[in-house]
Task: structure prediction
Amino acid sequence: MLTRRNFTLSMGAFVSAGTAIACPVPSPVGNTHSVLMLNAGCGDPDTPNVFEPALLRINPGDTVTFLATDAGHNSASKRGMIPEGAEPWNGAVDQELTVEFRVPGIYGHICVPHYEWGMVGVIVVGDDLHNLKAAKKVRHPGTARKIFRTLLKELEA
Result:
């Protein structure tokens, strides 16, 4: 399993006095993208349980690999926040998961153990935001509500 320590060392990151460790997301390779599942935000250790990046834009047919960088996380599609005809997913905790996105639209995803605490993300496939209105209507508990609202509002800009 790829740990934050191993990932950070492999990326050549370093720590200086008073500076949080940066955890850059691996660059896309062809049509494959990566999302880190982390215990704390990159460069912001005060933000717990995050996907990095929280908002990802990709093309139809691209794949996303959710990397189990820190323990205790998974990625699962959020019911009501994926386009009609798209396949839902629910990865196992502590396991890497690769998902292919064929249907254009907005995909909301969550970490099941940390959903209420706001570990959520959005993947936009193509330029088609046809399901934005439906995604905005989905109700969320706790901090997830605020973070989804912020991410979806960013798509309107």
Observations:
- The CA atoms of residues 24 and 42 lie 8 Å apart.
- Residues 1-20 have pLDDT under 50 and may be disordered.
